TrEMBL record:
<dbReference type="InterPro" id="IPR013815">
    <property type="entry name" value="ATP_grasp_subdomain_1"/>
</dbReference>
<dbReference type="GO" id="GO:0046872">
    <property type="term" value="F:metal ion binding"/>
</dbReference>
<dbReference type="InterPro" id="IPR000115">
    <property type="entry name" value="PRibGlycinamide_synth"/>
</dbReference>
<dbReference type="GO" id="GO:0009113">
    <property type="term" value="P:purine nucleobase biosynthetic process"/>
</dbReference>
<dbReference type="GO" id="GO:0005524">
    <property type="term" value="F:ATP binding"/>
</dbReference>
<dbReference type="Pfam" id="PF01071">
    <property type="entry name" value="GARS_A"/>
</dbReference>
<keyword id="KW-0067">ATP-binding</keyword>
<dbReference type="InterPro" id="IPR011761">
    <property type="entry name" value="ATP-grasp"/>
</dbReference>
<feature type="domain" description="ATP-grasp">
    <location>
        <begin position="102"/>
        <end position="293"/>
    </location>
</feature>
<dbReference type="InterPro" id="IPR020561">
    <property type="entry name" value="PRibGlycinamid_synth_ATP-grasp"/>
</dbReference>
<dbReference type="GO" id="GO:0004637">
    <property type="term" value="F:phosphoribosylamine-glycine ligase activity"/>
</dbReference>
<keyword id="KW-0547">Nucleotide-binding</keyword>
<keyword id="KW-0436">Ligase</keyword>
<protein>
    <submittedName>
        <fullName>ATP-grasp domain-containing protein</fullName>
    </submittedName>
</protein>
C-alpha cells in the first residue's frame, strides 16, 4: 500500500511508525524526522501535494491534524480520484467551533459543564469576576492556543486578554469539573460510528489504555445517550461524518460530563490508540472509505498489551513517550526510563481508583 501522511502532530509520527512496520507499505510523510520517507512540501501547498500523490500513485492519503482536515485537501485530491481518509472540510468546520458543538450537546441534553461564550474581552472579564474558581477559559476554535485552568480572577483576566490579543474572535468560559478524565474514540464511515478504544487520562500528561473505573452500564449509557445521538444530529444537520472522532469526558462520583470533541487522535492518545487494537489500520481505513466498515467489523478487538503514554516539556519542547508491554509494571518501567515522572504515574493510579 502506498500511503501519504499529511500533518504535523505526534499522531502523524505514530502512524508513520505503524505503517512502516509493514514491508508491503511505502510510506511518505510531510512531517520530517519520522520513520516514513520525508516529503519536502508544505501541507498548505495543496497543488504540489496532489501532483506528488498522483505521480507516486498513492492508494491512501491520511490527514492527521486539524489544519489539514480544515483545508480543502480532501476535496482537491478527490477531484483526481485520490482516496483521502478525513471528514469533509465543510462538515468539520462545524466541529471546529465549540459553540456549535455545545449546541449539539445542549440539544441532546448531554451533561456538560456550565458555559458562556463571549465576543468581547470586557464582557468576559466582568463575567468571570462574579464566578467561582477555578474556571476554564478556552478559545472557540481548536488550535494552538489551548484551554487555561485559572485559579484566580487575575489569572483568568490575563488568559482572556491574551486570547483576544492573539486574534481569537470568541472565547468559552466553562465551569471546572474535577474528576476522572477519559476519552472514547470512534470511527465513522458516514453512517454509523464504531468504537475504537477508551483511554484514561491524568492532568493531560499521563494516559493509559482502558477505563477500569467505568462500569459496563456507564459505558452503555455513554454510547446510547451521548455518542449515538451526537452522530445522529451531526448527520441530520450537516453532511454525514466520515473519519475519527474523539469524545473527552470527566467522571465525578455521581455523573459523567462531556467536556469536548476532537476530530482526530490527540497527541497523548495517538500511539495508545493506534497500537491498542488487533485489526490492521490498512483494513480499517479501506473498509471505512468503501462504506463496508460494519460488514467487516462487528467490533474492534483490543490487543492484550498494556499501553501507556506520557507527555512533558523538555527544553521548551513538547515530548511524548510511549510504552507497550505484556504487564503494566513492565510498561511503566519503560516509560520511566524514557523520562516519565514515576510519582505522577502513581498519583494517577490512586486518582483512578475509588
Amino acid at each position: 500500500m502506498r500511503i501519504l501522511l499529511i500533518g504535523k502532530t505526534f499522531a502523524t509520527a505514530a502512524f508513520a511508525q505503524y505503517f512502516t512496520q509493514n514491508p508491503n507499505n511505502i510510506v511518505f510523510s510531510t512531517l520530517s524526522g519520522t520513520d516514513a520517507e520525508s516529503v519536502d512540501i508544505l501541507p498548505d501547498n495543496i497543488q504540489e501535494l496532489k501532483e506528488f500523490a498522483l505521480a507516486n500513485e498513492m492508494s491512501l492519503t491520511l490527514l492527521c491534524d486539524k489544519d489539514s482536515i480544515l483545508s480543502p485537501i480532501k476535496e482537491e485530491f478527490e477531484k483526481d480520484r485520490l482516496r483521502v481518509f478525513a471528514p469533509d472540510s465543510k462538515t468539520f468546520k462545524f466541529l471546529n467551533s465549540k459553540i456549535w458543538a455545545k449546541k449539539i450537546i445542549y440539544k441532546n441534553k448531554i451533561p456538560t459543564p456550565r458555559f458562556q461564550f463571549f465576543e468581547k474581552p470586557q464582557a468576559a472579564i466582568e463575567y468571570v469576576r462574579k464566578n467561582k474558581f477555578p474556571i476554564v477559559i478556552k478559545p472557540d476554535s481548536i488550535g494552538a492556543l489551548g484551554a487555561r485552568i485559572c485559579e484566580t480572577f487575575g489569572s483568568a483576566k490575563v488568559a482572556i486578554e491574551e486570547f483576544f490579543d492573539n486574534g481569537v474572535k470568541k472565547i468559552l468560559t466553562e465551569e471546572y469539573i474535577w474528576g476522572k478524565e477519559f476519552s472514547v474514540y470512534t470511527i465513522c464511515d458516514g453512517y454509523n460510528p464504531l468504537f475504537l478504544c477508551e483511554i484514561s487520562k491524568y492532568q493531560n500528561s499521563f494516559a493509559m489504555i482502558g477505563t477500569d473505573f467505568l462500569g459496563e452500564k456507564e459505558k452503555q449509557k455513554i454510547a446510547k445517550e451521548v455518542i449515538l445521538p451526537f452522530f445522529d444530529t451531526l448527520t441530520k444537520e450537516n453532511d454525514a461524518y466520515t473519519g475519527i472522532l474523539g469524545f473527552n469526558f470527566v467522571k465525578t462520583k455521581d455523573k459523567i460530563f462531556l467536556i469536548s470533541i476532537v476530530p482526530f487522535f490527540e497527541d497523548i492518545d495517538s500511539q495508545i490508540a493506534i497500537n491498542g487494537i488487533k485489526a490492521s489500520w490498512e483494513d480499517i481505513f479501506e473498509c471505512t472509505l468503501s462504506n463496508t466498515l460494519f460488514e467487516n467489523f462487528s467490533q474492534i478487538q483490543q490487543n492484550d498489551s498494556h499501553l501507556l503514554s506520557y507527555e512533558f516539556y523538555e527544553n521548551g519542547k513538547k515530548t511524548n513517550v510511549f510504552a507497550q508491554a505484556k504487564t503494566f509494571n513492565a510498561a511503566r518501567k519503560i516509560l520511566c526510563e524514557e523520562g516519565a515522572d514515576k510519582k505522577e504515574i502513581e498519583e494517577a493510579l490512586k486518582h483512578w481508583k475509588y
